[in-house]
Specification:
Blueprint lengths: L1 E2 L8 E2 L23 E3 L5 E6 L12 E7 L10 H7 E3 L8 E11 L5 E6 L3 E4 L2 E4 H9 L4 E12 L2 E10 L7 H9 L10 E4 L37 H14 L17 H15 L5 H6 L3 H15 L17 E2 L2 H12 L7 E9 L4 H14 L5 E6 L2 E6 L7 E5 L5 H16 L11 E7 L4 E9 L5 H19 L13 H11 L2 H14 L13
Parallel strand pairs: 12-13, 18-19
Antiparallel strand pairs: 1-2, 3-8, 4-5, 5-7, 6-7, 7-8, 9-10, 11-12, 14-17, 15-20, 16-17, 19-20
Length: 538
């Protein structure tokens, strides 16, 4: 049967959760549009707000809600594996007692009430940060002009994952993206700010009345909220060239003089690409931080003009060209940082970059493995290891070799257990460390759920890749697999440059006067800074 658990508007299904069921676990306090959902546990029910390591969270700090007490069910009917996952020992209760993992994200208010923030399974990782979507939604709901809010992490372009907020205005209110961004900046760090806001007349609902997240549209140029600034066309040559670059990178039709790069959907990865485009288009070296300091088109154009005027007094960096491989190959400065950290903490998986892709339809595993072998042949970084020679860090590029594709068949498990086992294996694979001196620094595993469903796990170390490069990797694997499974050769052209060429170029350029100039700038700006950053520990 059904076991009521003090819900907001649903009941707890003893037979197990359905795909779109959300459990709210405390009595509802009536609230108006934009106000949070708060309440208290039912009588004889203990409510714990715990961290991922099952430690009690302080007042105001979000955590997962666990419930215990005399009304707790024994488990799911005929679902022992799910019962073991959700009903766990209660470390705060009598011996032998259990508590239920709700999956709800809540926080305790100073008056003792609980505020519902969303679902734990709505946690996402965007550009290296773990983000609770419910926390962003909760902050946005406090804005007086909003009636309803949903936040998603979308990856409409492979490798370009970004936060998108879908907002429904309250009656009689208009929406402005600058106002919403300013409001959120008072409550959330910058990495939690959505890169796009999509206004809707109403949120799409499924037949049972829940928000249908799959029906939410992808943001486009026409769906962006209006800026509080009127559109003013760029006038100078610099402004017009810069507007053209923004429009191409941000996939917008037009860019005005007062438009903000991040309000139009920009983020740190796109900012890195923009700085590279500025270097090739305007022939100036503009630091990435300049874009964060001057994020409007007008401000950035001024910085560009200033940089171009002063560029005549500085030596231009040498051209980036293919370099011979007949000597010792140094690491880039970014690689050296990661190598140094690995020497301090060998076997630390912190800098693993894991990706999991669901593959639907018939799969040719041999063509997939051949695609990865060709990928490793194309990219020297994927067949590079890292060691040292008398204390000097070096990279060693190895000849192309076959990359093993580990295959795990889950069809022997009950169908209801395969997804959970796939998630467990994905988490286990993501946490497995690399040995930088041995390699390979790319691992691939194929999980077979049934004849038409597979999960492809790819893990690479950050010393040979980054978030944007993973998008390149996925696109190239897809192109190679499509060709090889059809009996065609690789459609991808040979690469004119490899990362080792960049490392050699960087080391050749940043020495002598160029390096002294960089060091003096940082010494000037860090003068008087404390020698150590003192932070309180837990």
């Amino acid at each position: 049967g059904l076991y009521a658990l003090g819900t907001v508007e649903h009941v707890f299904n003893l037979y197990g959760p359905t795909e779109d069921t959300t459990y709210s676990t405390f009595t509802r306090v009536p609230h108006g549009p934009g106000e949070p959902t708060i309440g208290v546990p039912l009588p004889a029910t203990s409510a714990y707000i715990l961290s991922a390591s099952l430690q009690l969270q302080p007042i105001g700090v979000p955590g997962e809600l666990f419930l215990a007490g005399v009304g707790l069910a024994r488990g799911y009917l005929h679902r022992p594996e799910l019962s073991a996952e959700r009903f766990i020992p209660d470390p705060f209760g009598p011996p032998g007692s259990r508590m239920y993992r709700t999956g709800d994200l809540v926080r305790r208010l100073p008056d003792g009430q609980l505020e519902y923030l969303g679902r734990i399974d709505h946690q996402v990782k965007v550009r290296g940060f773990r983000i609770e979507l419910g926390e962003i939604e909760s902050a946005l709901r406090q804005h007086p002009s909003l009636q309803a809010v949903v936040v998603l992490a979308r990856e409409d372009v492979p490798g370009d994952k970004r936060l998108v907020a879908y907002v429904v205005p309250a009656p009689g209110h208009s929406l402005e993206v600058d106002s919403l961004r300013s409001f959120l900046r008072q409550h959330l760090p910058d990495f939690m700010l959505p890169s796009a806001f999509v206004p809707l007349e109403a949120l799409p609902l499924s037949p049972n009345g829940k928000v249908d997240r799959k029906a939410l549209p992808a943001p486009d140029a026409s769906s962006r909220l209006a800026s509080q600034h009127p559109f003013v066309a760029p006038s100078t040559a610099t402004q017009q060239q810069l507007a053209s670059l923004w429009a191409e990178l941000l996939n917008v039709e037009r860019v005005g003089l007062y438009d903000d790069f991040f309000s139009l959907g920009g983020h740190s990865l796109l900012a890195t690409r923009l700085v590279s485009r500025l270097r090739s288009t305007f022939k100036v070296e503009l630091p990435l931080r300049a874009l964060f300091e001057a994020s409007s088109l007008e401000q950035l154009a001024l910085k560009l003009d200033t940089a171009r005027l002063s560029a005549g007094n500085q030596a231009a960096p040498p051209a980036l060209r293919p370099a011979p491989r007949d000597g010792l190959l140094p690491l880039s400065f970014a690689q050296q940082r990661l190598w140094f950290i690995d020497q301090l903490q060998p076997g630390n998986p912190t800098y693993n970059i894991p990706t999991a892709l669901r593959l639907s339809g018939s799969l040719d595993a041999s063509a997939l493995q051949r695609a990865f072998c060709e990928l490793v042949r194309r990219h020297e970084s994927l067949r590079t290891t890292f060691g040292d020679d008398n204390g000097t860090a070096l990279q060693f590029i190895h000849p192309a070799a076959e990359l093993p594709l580990t295959q795990v068949d889950l069809r022997a498990l009950p169908e209801s257990s395969r997804e959970a086992e796939a998630r467990r294996l994905a988490i286990e694979e993501a946490a497995r460390p690399f040995e930088l001196a041995r390699g390979p620094l790319l691992r691939t595993t194929l999980l077979r759920l049934d004849e038409q469903q597979h999960v492809l796990l790819m893990t690479v170390h950050h010393i040979v890749s980054d978030g944007w490069s993973m998008g390149v990797l996925v696109r190239e694997v897809a192109a190679l697999y499509q060709a090889f499974s059809a009996g065609r050769p690789s459609p991808l052209p040979e690469l004119p440059l490899q990362y080792a060429d960049y490392a050699l170029w960087q080391r050749d350029w940043l020495q002598g006067e160029a390096l002294d100039s960089q060091l003096s700038w940082w010494k000037q700006h860090l003068a008087g800074a404390p020698h150590a950053l003192e932070l309180p520990t837990d």
